[in-house]
Structures are given as structure tokens and as C-alpha cells.
Amino acid sequence: MDAPLTRNIKSDGSTVTLAEYLAGGGYEGLKKTLAEFTPLEVQQRVKDSGLRGRGGAGFPTGLKWSFVPMGEDAPKTKYLVVNGDEMEPGTFKDRLLLEGDPHQLIEGVAIASYAIQANVAYIFLRGEYRLAAARLRRAIAEAEAHKLLGENILGSGFSLDLRLHTSAGRYICGEETALLNSLEGKRATPRAKPPFPQVSGLFGKPTIVNNVETLCNLPHILRNGVEWYQSLSRSGEPGTKIYGVSGRVERPGAWELPMGTTAREIIEEHAGGMRQGYRLKGYLPGGASTDFLLPEHLDIPMDYGSIAKAGSRLGTGTMILLDDKTCPVQMVLNLERFFAQESCGWCTPCRDGLPWTVSLLEDLIAGRGRPEDLETLARLCGLLGPGNTFCALAPGAMEPLQSALKYFRADFERYLQPQNINGGAHA
Ligand code: SF4
């Protein structure tokens, strides 16, 4: 099975040097790009490949690029920004790529920057990713020394200044416009759209924000072609995906697999199945801000369309499992506490609604819940849902709760029976 993104990742946790990367065909995609294609041809290839953003939203990458003004009249300064602010609970796939193969990301950044004619790129990195930061700094220096970055890359006339920015750390910085505000030194609140960053982004200039895994696909697409890329998949959506599993399995981790691999294969074969004594009760397929699915959904292909049809989102493709010995209400409370703490406070439904959600769940678990509280929680899911808040944080925060109320209602109702309350846990 072809796993281009992780083919260089070493099992001992060490990183790939420039010499090793070059020996494996590294930077061939960039060389080919600069020698054979115009920026618009690169955009078209990426469009044709069908690559969708791997940060969670799944927007088509080539289409996103095509909104950037191009040609003689386009603004002279444009930016490419890498979203490396991986802060969602349960999500750790980008860390694997950042630490294990930083040159692959750098090559992807150079290709994307060429495609939109940006001469400055930033990697916006989660502050806690110190090992990734150190390895990226070294890799950037290596690439600059070998004319793979900087002035007149490989004699092509294209120049790129790549800068690493380590974030002070806030979940909302993963939202692209909040990320841009943060990069400008402002408070990290999302911006109203339009204008979209492709037209007016960093410092008011055209800007593309792409996720780490998305960019790592580019060297391979440009080097090996669109048909090869599409052949990697098992479903109608092309390429591979780094899927992850956390929870009570034998081997939690992340694996690069064909797009469309089923959750059953990921959990049972790659993660080694549930640990002895535990049964799978449900799973969040794409990280903490997605809806629960049930064991009956395990054979659905893990791709954007199929997971959406089942009522959830592929998100980052990193599953969080719920087992039969973990209380779904307490698991959801844990997540809601995280989201309430990370709300940027800009809009009322999210700023006030998330702490209210937390206090209702805390009261329920402490035995102070009233039957009508479950209706209030369900109502909050709508009030904080899509279209009612400024950005997607609050709607995402409601996804695990609304699906838990649907699938695990009995677990919520059990807390309404005083005899079942035992120090905050089910009797
Ligand atoms: S939904 Fe929450 S995080 Fe997003 S802008 Fe509103 S307050 Fe901020």
C-alpha cells in the first residue's frame, strides 16, 4: 500500500535529514513544478487531483487557491500561511508530519506559494510543539543553504522567504481568520467574511491558509501526477488520509491509509482492537467537534461524503472512542469544558451559552439536574448551532452533545434518578 506522506517517518521518532529526503526523491516535485508548470497550471493540477483541505473543513484546495488575484494587476505582496495550530482534543496527525518529515512540508509550502505567487510564507505553529519547532528551524536552514528556499530557488527566478511563528496557544487560532489576526499581533478573534482571506488576508493582502497535511500532499501530486494520486484512494474521494485513534484500544496512534478506509479496519486492524474488557459504545470520527457515530456505522468509508451522510463529519479523521465503561455524559462535559474555556468571547451565544452548557451538565452529574434541563441542553444545541454564531467553534462544540443526547439519552436520564448518583458517577 502506497503511503506517500508518511513513507519517510521513522519508527524511532528521529527526523528526516535533507540528505535522506533528497535520496528518497525529495524536492523532485518542486523541481518539476518550477521547471515545467506555470502557477495557473499548478492550480489546475491541484484542482484536477480533487485534493480537499485536511484541516477539518474539507474545502477543495485548488478551488480555494483560484480565488487569489493573479496576473500583472494582482497585489505584489501575497502570503501563504501554514495552519500548524493543532489544538483540537484527540488530534495529533500533523505533529507526526512536522516532527518526522519537515522537508516534505517545506516542499509543499514552496509549491503552494509558487502556485499563488506568494513570496512570503509563515508556518503558524502550536506553541507546545517545541520539538517540531526545533526540527522545522533546522530544516528551513538546510533548505535555504541548498537554494531550495530563499532568493531565486533552483535558479528559477522564484523567491520565497519562509518564516516560523510559534503561537502563544489558543484553540481559536486554528480558525483561519483568527490565526491571521494573531499573526498580526492582534487579539485572536475571527474576522467577518467577506472579504475572504484569499482577497484580503494577512496585513490586508491576498492570503491562503492551508493545513499541514494538505500541503504535504502537494510534492507527491506534482511529482507523480493526478491519476496516480486518485488511484491511492478506496472511495470516490482521492488520495490518502492520516487517520488516528485515541481511547481504550490496544495501540492508539495514527496511520496513513487510503481515503475511504472504514473505521472498523482502522480500529480493529491498525489500532489492534478494543482493550480486553472494553466494548465500543460510540466514536467521534473526526476529533472533538464532530458528532458521535455508533458501532453500526463502523463499515462506512471514512471519507467526507460518507461520514456526512451518516450524520457526522470526517473533520481531521482522528477518532476518539467511547467505550462501555466510560460515561458519555462525563465525556461530553469534559469536551464542553474545553470549548467553553477556549471561546474567544466575541459573540454572546458562544461566550454565555458554552458556560451554561457546562453548568447544566455539572448539575446533572452532581444529582441536581431537572428533567427540563435535558430539553434546555437540546435547545442550546440549536441556539449555538450553525448560523447563530460568528465562527464554527460553538457549532462544533455542540456536535458531540447533540449526538450524545440522541444516541445516549438513557445515560443522561439515569442521572435524574437520585439513587443512581454516586459521587458524580453512575451507580
Ligand atoms: S463562536 Fe465563539 S469562538 Fe467563534 S467568534 Fe463567537 S465567541 Fe468567538
List the helices and strands and how they pair.
Blueprint: H1 18-23, H2 28-36, H3 39-49, H4 61-66, E1 79-84, H5 93-100, H6 102-116, E2 120-125, H7 130-145, E3 161-166, H8 176-183, E4 207-211, H9 212-224, H10 226-231, E5 240-246, E6 253-258, H11 263-270, E7 280-284, H12 304-309, E8 318-323, H13 328-342, H14 348-365, H15 371-383, H16 393-407, H17 409-414, E9 421-422, E10 425-426
Parallel strand pairs: 1-2, 1-4, 2-3, 5-8
Antiparallel strand pairs: 5-6, 7-8, 9-10
Helix pairs in contact: 2-6, 2-9, 3-6, 5-7, 6-9, 13-14, 13-16, 14-15, 15-16
The chain binds iron/sulfur cluster (SF4).
Iron/sulfur cluster (SF4) binds next to helix 14 and helix 16.
Function: NDH-1 shuttles electrons from NADH, via FMN and iron-sulfur (Fe-S) centers, to quinones in the respiratory chain.
InterPro entries: NADH-UbQ_OxRdtase_51kDa_CS (IPR001949), NADH-UbQ_OxRdtase_suF (IPR011537), Nuo51_FMN-bd (IPR011538), Nuo51_FMN-bd_sf (IPR037225), Nuop51_4Fe4S-bd (IPR019575), Nuop51_4Fe4S-bd_sf (IPR037207), Soluble_ligand-bd (IPR019554)
Keywords: 4Fe-4S, Flavoprotein, FMN, Iron, Iron-sulfur, Metal-binding, NAD, Oxidoreductase, Quinone, Translocase
